[in-house]
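Example 3.2
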Amino acid sequence: MRFTEQYPDERDARLNLTDQRIGRAQDFLVNEIEDAYSARQPEEKSWEESLRQYHARPKEAVKDIPVENAPNVEVPLVGTACDALYAMVLDLIFSIRPTLTASSAAFGNEDLIDVAKSAQDFGNWGERNEWQLRSAMEHACLDVIQLGTGVLFIPHLVYRRQTDIARVVDQGPRILSVPLEDFLMPSGSYSDVQEMPWVAHRQWFTEGELRSRAKYLGWDIEGVEPITTVGWVRSRRESFGRVQTNLRLNTPLYEIHTVYPYFDIDKDGYDEDLCLIFDRRSRKILKASYNGYDCRPYEVGRYQLLAHLPYGLGAAEMLRSMQDEASTLHNAKTLNVLMANARMWLNQAGSGIDEPMLKAYFNRVITVNNMEGFKELQMSTAHTPAVAMHEASILQFAERRVGTGELSNPRPSNLLSSRTPGITALTAMQTVNRRFTAAFDQMRLMGSGAVRQCFLRYRERLLVNDQQSRQTIEKVVGPDIAPALIDALKSPDFLQNVLIEFTASSALVNQAQERQDAVQLYQILQGYYSGIMNMMTVAASPQAPPEIKDVAAKIVKAGGEAVERTIRTFDKVRDPRAFIIELDSQVDQAVGGVPPDLMAQLAGILGLNTQQAVAPPAYGVAQ
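Structure, written as tokens:
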């Protein structure tokens, strides 16, 4: 199975390329990319050290100081914290169904409300069947937690099976995780990947994959040169995972960079939004074109933001010094126990003991000429509890640093009493430390941004009248609803009118609390709708004076504002105005009266008190 990217149209035909312009772009890429790799070397060393500590590999394979084969254990502080945080992220995002929530951002537009519902159905289908969101988030979130930064790539891919003829098997947007070491950002840039001068995505292609792209994408692969080794961080990943290959590869690989720069290639004073395919080894541009996507197809998340810097700070780097200290203390404690049970011997010359005493033997008899000439020398004292106390303090500092309580792992019985209510106990056990909220928010926004770009990939295909994309939408949401969704997708304001995000909006979400919030929300709305019915009864009464009708209209408006502000506090409610009823025109039209049986039917549907809802007030004797 081969896959290649598919762009909306032939973007290179409009660029008017010349050899001089290509040469300028090649010089620009050579200087920028090599400078970025040089500037990133300290960061790559830090990533390598983070991976080493996560896998709990000692810095030295064998330690012979102060004794041969001394204790050499790496305490897995980083691994324990990263695994706990990683499990929290996946549980918070994917344990809630549906994973995605689509809502209308335009109040009062019934058409957009219907579009949001169809976008919800289409997003649910794409997340489960096509976009591979779960697998991409699993790898990207692990990079975010371990290394501080994670990257998602959202292309439109075409899968082809290579037989006697090329046949399209499948096509559509995909969410792919990019290894952090293969995503390059310019030195000195800021954090917004869409506003950087350029970004580059490094990929390692075999000769067959390169020829496939030359055929379907028009790459000029003449003169490209293979590499002999992959990147340093990639090599360390494989080494720690025990799948490292030989440094000199048996299968030739080509180091190709897909670069998205803002570069004035024609010197007209305006930066063009370009897509350049660049072979780093031969320093050659294989293809140059405009960026055919609506935006750069990448989403970046960071564990801890570093202000105005492109890369983030990961949990592993936060705990680095603490793991070093914990490992040193643990090895010293173990060595102390071993040496406290061992002895060195002072042997006077001529005592008669010539053989080395390397091993102890039971019932062994040692003959000496002088009892004073043979003495033991104690090497260590007994273990003191101060070391254990110091290790416990290290764990406390580490938990505060990264925001997880899994290192010391307190029991629930230590946190909750026997009289704690059930919902409170569930909330306490499932609540995540607020220190983790910002990091979770970064990963949530990274994933939801990738989902929004999947909708943009469909939009780009629809704008060039791609029939297969249209048929996919019609198949998922139905032929009757699909035209409205397709028209909305073609609009440049689609993402501003329809909000698409993860259902899990914070790190404090749990299902029991959600259920209780839903019941409370229903009770609030039931009281609100009951009041609305009473106001309609007042307005419908032919005996009501105009002043009373005006007051009723003001009460309806003020009540709607109060309820909207109240339900905005519910974390799961993204579109509170959808629950509010605007009755200005309805109250004005109710002068002629509403049949009581109709009011009773409406009250019954809403589950309200029928007598309370339809009993008309008395305003005096009718004339």
